[in-house]
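I had to read the description of the data format several times before I understood it. In essence, backbone conformation is discretised, so a fold becomes a row of integers matching the chain in length. I therefore recommend that a typical entry be quoted early in the introduction. For illustration, here is how one protein appears when written out as sequence plus structure tokens.

***
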Amino acid sequence: MRRGFERGAKAASRFAGHPLCFGLAVAVVVAWVVSGPLFGFSDTWQLVINTGTTIVTFLMVFLIQNSQNRDAAAVQIKLDELIRATRSAENALLDLEELDEDALERFRKRYEDLACKARDEARRREADGGADSRRDARERHRAEEKRELRDMSEDRGHRRGAGLDN
């Protein structure tokens, strides 16, 4: 059943994003509007379009979610591979999507702080006439970054071990 749903969802997603599908939707609406006078613009006539659009919208929610889940999983795997394959990258970042909101916020704040420090360092270097090389500053920041990420990862490991992290 799952395999059938996946194939059907992929096919439906491709079709729904195709200009032909949009053209068909416009044609249905035009046919509905044109048929209004034939049915005296009755309640039943209005109910037909309301029911049809409600059903299509309801089903499209699931198709869109399925498509987004597949795309997000594929992008995440690609990002994980880039992190894993990059020698200087921090492997502790590989499963960030599994963290709770508080842990993600701590990582986000940490990277915001690192960006701030890097800008301050660049301004300081510019004011000093470039006395400190960019490479030295980057290496210093990277070492500090790795230490802090390791500390955050160890804290996360301790929290998991203590049953505090879900």
User: Anything to note?
Assistant: The chain has a mean pLDDT of 84. Residues 22 and 71 are 22 Å apart (CA to CA). The two ends are 31 Å apart (CA to CA).
